[in-house]
Amino acid sequence: MLRAYAICIYIFLYLPISLIVFFSFNAGKYAMSWEGFSLFWYGKAFSNPLIMGALKTSVIIALSTAVLSAIIGTLTALGLERVRGWLRVTFDALIYIAIMVPGIVIGISTLIAFVSLFDVVNPSLASMGIKLQMGTWAVIAAHVLFNIAVVALLVRARLQGMDRSLVDASEDLYATPLGTFRQVVLPLLAPSILAGFLLSFTFSFEDFIIAYFVSGPDTTLPIYIFSSIRRGVTPEINAVGSVVLLTSFVLLIIAQAVLRRGERTTPP
Amino acid sequence: MTKHPDHISASKFIDELRRYQKGSVSRRHFLGVTGLGLATAVLSTAVPGLRPRKAWAGLSGTLNVTTWPNYFSQENYDNFTKQTGVPINVNVFGSNEEMLAKLQAGSTGWDVLVPTNYTISTYKNLDLIEPLDLKLFPSYDPAAQDPRFLGPGTIDGVTYAVPKDWGTTGFIVNTKATTENPTSWKEFFALAQGPLSGKATVHDYQLTTIGSAAKALGYGFNTVDKNELAEIEKLLVATKPHLFAVTSDYQPAMRNGDAAMAMCWTNDAAQLNRDMPEMSYRLGKDGGEIWVDHYAVIKGAPNREAAYAFLDFILTPDINAKEIEAHGTPTTDSRVLKLLPESILKNPILYPAADQLTALEYGAAETLTNPDRAELMARFKSA
Amino acid sequence: MRGSRPGMMNLSMASTSRPKLVTTLLLLPAGLFFVFLLLVPLAVVLIFSFGERAPAGGYMPAFTLQNYMDLPARGKAFFNTLTLAPLGTLLTALFAFPMAYFLAVKVSPKWRVTLLILVMAPFWTSQLLRYYAWMMILGNKGIPGWLAMVGLDVRIINTPWAVLIGAVYGFLPLMVPPIYVSLEKLDKRLLEASADLGATPARTFWQVTLPLALPGVATGSMLVFILLMGDYILPQFLGGGKVFFIGNALVDLFLQSRNWPFGAAVSVALVAIMFVTIYVYMRFVLSKTDTRRAALV
């Protein structure tokens, strides 16, 4: 009976996704009435400068976010291992606040804080020909904030579960602290850093609401898809969605393979 | 035709000649626009010519245009990029309020925007758009514009925005889904609460939703009177549970039959009716909105030169005609009118009988910033 | 001495300054982010919530409590969010539990991870497009259309039901993994022992399996609850402007009516509600799961 339930859940999860993929091959103009098989919309999507531009913006944002979050989040987890007392408590609190404050409030607060700041500083910067404004950088900054917290938690969980004797052994062998870090700690942390990197990339690539508030004149893929859905989707968007879907499946499988190898080399 | 983006039509040539004779364009412009076409224009209706490339030389960067959904011809925009080397980045918005909100929220990276008539004075007062330098886009000819639509873009004699196209706000009825035959906003709201309960949509837009409800109650479209607004809120809130949705993006719901009646703009009506003849567009006989959308240039636009080159390009009659054909919104330019096919000119959705237009009103600037209307709309939506 | 020091990297020698410098450098980037992108902006929101709307929209400095007194004008949005978000979380947990149990207990280890990834994978695809697909499935040409053929007049799209279906659909991929992780730790010998001692399967489930899974359920629920409380896309797409959440009200206030101070007050209220709820939840649920686990071992 549980097996039947599981099958139902898989159908439930994949039915809408298969609809998206199915209609990406639709020859007709409207996303949900079938008029024959065609690859027309794939060609159309990939020659649409708006879609490609939005895709590029999203990839830049997601990659920058993932790299920055993975680095800063790992540094934070390592740093927190070295402190106690008020600093530790404060950082723990900040990490939880960053995760608990809804994305929409992060978007709003970033927006109004920076717009107010720009209103003050832009007049004096104008003489230098500089004009600060919202844009891709603001999306990256707001995404990194949230994802630092995610990566820090993931890496810390790994650190706490780590076998201390390895570090001790390394030190007994007179490895320099940096050498110990590079040769012992980093490889042990790698799976969780990678997991954090992937999660950050996904959250960032998928995010609509924060970007909606702070992206200024820049358009990300979710913002483009949002406005397309509002005005009635053509199979063009289904085509882009299907390609993104395929890419993320491939990445997911690769990531899983890497993570598994990581697990095998480090018995829990 | 699309293979020769540089053609000039005979009628355009004549237009240019007249303008030149009238002195409304410079000789340089006249020769520039007509160019090589001069010799052959009399021989054929469409021949390759030259655009005034000189004005467009030395452009670089990207042009950021903000407009409404389904409101431009991608082909035209691609041609602009081909001719100037400047790619266009398009942002679309759901309402004027959203556009203003984004501008106020520091989205200052845009160059060209498409404001509706009633918002222009506010943009000007907030110092968000610049007075247009008409010399920089000679293809725009005020003399060719329908004088009905020239008012909103000009403030104290200074042109801040030039007309793009005009239209109306009425409602569309799927005559296959219902036998009801509403002709006024009063009937619209009565039907929405009654026989078409669960099947009607209104805009997610204060101007038209509050305005049309005001007309149903016999008030002015632009009312900001607190007592009248209170009555309007009662009507809207009473209608809310019966509505299918509160949305400005009603095309999908009308197409798949979720909705049978929707508050609707000209261009959406034309597009729906083009694909589904059973879609019938009506103007409320008790009133409603007539609107003109404009092109304006943002103050401090990062790519000001390209913005003006874009205006010059897009307002060139034959190019503008392609715009109109793509999105189905009536033009304000008599030169463009001559280039449009019969099917568009005879379409009663685009060009309703003149007597139907008399009851319609322009939106008033006050409605854009009036806090009571904004709050009423927000309360209606969250009701 | 080594063993008494906290942490795993023995770089820290509290008496020397270099390790302190290292610690500072490690924590500085995150510290800067937390200060300038979290604390300062949240403080700005708090300050703005006492201000007034400028005549053309935006913010005007003032000190008034009016924005907080106006909160009841968004009562329905708060009500919808505060009922549908917990309900959606609960339903998601209910649907996720048997799935996680199946994966952790019934599936052979060889297939477990693959099948788990299949549950999570939808989360890696465009949320917007997935909800769009549901708009079609729940719309006139979808399930209600088929039901109409057998004479049933059912409306789902733009009702709270559609939002709940969307919540379960959207967040199941996030709820299953944490429950799976806690169930996977479940020692099967415990189940056998329980059975050997004469416990019925139901009793075993209630007294052994469920308590063990609770931490996972608690983690997953918190995650889903946080996301649902601030959601905008789900009520926008499947609620059609009829099932209004706080998120929709906020988008309206900032991107339509440009009433920043009122929007700030709504944001403060939302964050306050979340902090209180989560605090109570952690106190109540998490402490309870801990004691039960302790009692079991």
TrEMBL record, chain A:
Primary location class: membrane
Annotated GO biological process: transmembrane transport
Taxonomic superkingdom: Bacteria
Pfam families named among the record's database cross-references: BPD_transp_1 (PF00528)
Chain ranges of the ABC transmembrane type-1 domain: 55-255
Membrane topology according to the record: Multi-pass membrane protein
Keyword Transmembrane part of the UniProt annotation: yes
Localization: Cell membrane
Signal peptide region: none
A GO cellular component annotation in the UniProt record: plasma membrane
Keyword list, A-Z: Cell membrane, Membrane, Transmembrane, Transmembrane helix, Transport
Membrane-spanning intervals of the chain: 7-25, 59-81, 93-115, 135-155, 184-203, 209-227, 239-259
Sequence similarity: Belongs to the binding-protein-dependent transport system permease family. CysTW subfamily.
Record protein name field: ABC transporter permease
UniProtKB/TrEMBL annotation, chain B:
One annotated GO biological process: polyamine transport
Predominant location category: periplasm
InterPro entries: SBP, Sperm_putr-bd, TAT_signal, TAT_signal_bac_arc
GO cellular component: periplasmic space
Position of the signal peptide: none
Top-rank lineage group of the source organism: Bacteria
UniProt-annotated location(s): Periplasm
Key words, A-Z: Periplasm, Signal, Transport
Phosphoprotein recorded as keyword: no
Keyword Signal in annotation: yes
UniProt GO molecular function: polyamine binding
SUPFAM superfamilies per record: Periplasmic binding protein-like II
Protein name: Spermidine/putrescine ABC transporter substrate-binding protein
Species name: Aestuariivirga litoralis
Lineage: Bacteria, Pseudomonadati, Pseudomonadota, Alphaproteobacteria, Hyphomicrobiales
